[in-house]
Specification:
The complex is a heterodimer of chains A (211) and B (157). Chain A is an alpha/beta fold and 211 residues long. Chain A is built from five helices and six strands; from the N terminus they run αββββαβαααβ. Chain B contains three helices and eight strands. In chain B, the strands form two sheets. A five-stranded mixed beta sheet of chain B has the order 5-4-3-6-7, covered by helices on one side. Classes of the chains: A alpha/beta (211), B alpha/beta (157).
């Protein structure tokens, strides 16, 4: 008997099948957004509000037309633009107008006596209207977090000039699951906590107004 | 003479498509790996605002998603006020607490303190709804939240 060669399988339609699958996955793919602004809500327990000097509060309110109104640094309040908010917040936090015990050794601000004493005392208070658009709220939050991050980056680099990273990068490395070395993690945590203690995020949100 | 004669006119040879399946498979595998199947069918508009001071959400299985926004075009009969969506259905503010309790019950006990609530809110929604949700979360002591955003310049919102 003569050996018959097995007939070759026709692979011409393989490309079609693969294309079909490819198109299916292309259509169903939604690249999920899994990043955002992390915040912590205050617990429900009612505590006595501490007494705060007015000069230590950066009173920001957003009205229903998404306009920003700022009352800080001892003035009567003014309408501000969103794009100036970061700069204003940095100037407020970094002012360092405190005397004696409340003096701020690392601040590079104007030391205006009618603005905040030191970043530890400075509080940013945010008041929204119920009709404020969510995107405005996010933009405001983003700018305020950016102001804190800017100062924290500066202090991180001042305190640990040889680490080769800034606060945000250190935070990212700390939260990265690929950072497995416990001693590296411990060191990062220690540095992050030190900077956070220097410039705590004191961002208070009031109940929104309704009208 | 005939040695130098071209064979059969100027017909172009067919392009070899033998490696086409390989290329397509490569793309296919990329998309298969990158795909995250949507867990919920959104019944609402959900165009997230953008921000640039973002942090990544660490573990996907420790996140509870709350969506909010206007009902999308095929659900117009539900009105045009922003609504909350939990899992696959629209819900009221009062349902948020039971949703959180349910989600917590489905997780291992030692993981509960690490649960984060991701708020995926449409950029056109108003703050009234968002703060109502936040109030409910505070009552349920789910304090870690994340405003999910797209990467981008916040000033262009």
């Amino acid at each position: 008997m003569a050996k018959r060669a097995a007939p070759e399988v026709n692979a011409g339609s393989m490309a079609d099948i693969a294309f079909l699958l490819l198109i299916f996955f292309l259509v169903t793919t939604t690249i999920e957004t899994d990043s955002g602004l992390n915040r912590k809500l205050p617990p429900m327990e009612e505590t006595e509000p501490p007494i705060i000097k007015e000069k230590n509060i950066f009173q920001l309110s957003v009205n229903k037309n998404d306009q920003l109104f700022l009352k800080a640094n001892g003035n009567d309040g003014e309408v501000v633009e969103l794009k100036n908010l970061r700069e204003l917040a940095v100037a407020f936090l970094d002012n360092g107008g405190g005397q004696g015990d409340e003096a701020c050794s690392f601040c590079r601000g104007k030391k205006n006596p009618s603005s905040s004493d030191n970043p530890d005392k400075a509080i940013i208070s945010l008041q929204n209207d119920r009709q404020t658009k969510y995107k405005t709220y996010i933009a405001v939050q983003n700018e305020l977090i950016a102001a804190y991050n800017q100062l924290r980056n500066r202090e991180f680099q001042r305190l640990y000039p040889n680490s080769g990273m800034n606060f945000e990068e250190a935070n990212k490395a700390y939260n990265d699951p690929r950072t497995t070395d416990a001693s590296v993690k411990e060191k990062l945590k220690e540095r992050l906590e030190a900077v956070k203690a220097l410039i705590p995020q004191k961002l208070s949100e009031a109940e929104p107004k309704s009208n | 003479m005939s040695k130098f004669k071209k064979k059969k006119g100027g017909d172009l040879p067919a392009v070899n498509t033998a490696s086409l399946p390989d290329i397509v498979f490569m793309l296919l595998f990329f998309f298969m790996v990158a795909t995250v199947m949507r867990e919920n069918t959104l019944m609402i508009e959900n165009k997230l605002p953008q921000a640039n001071q973002v942090e990544k959400l660490a573990k996907k299985d420790l996140v509870m998603y709350i969506y909010a926004g206007k009902p999308s075009s095929q659900y117009r009969n539900l009105g045009d006020q922003p609504r909350i969506q939990l899992n696959d259905k629209l819900a009221n503010v009062s349902d948020v607490r039971s949703f959180i309790r349910e989600e917590r019950a489905s997780k291992r006990e030692e993981l509960i303190p690490f649960l984060t609530t991701a708020l995926k809110v449409d950029s056109e929604a108003n703050m009234g709804l968002v703060s109502d949700i936040k109030q409910e979360l505070r009552k349920e002591n789910a304090l870690k939240i994340n405003y999910t955003t797209r990467q981008g310049d916040a000033l262009e919102n």
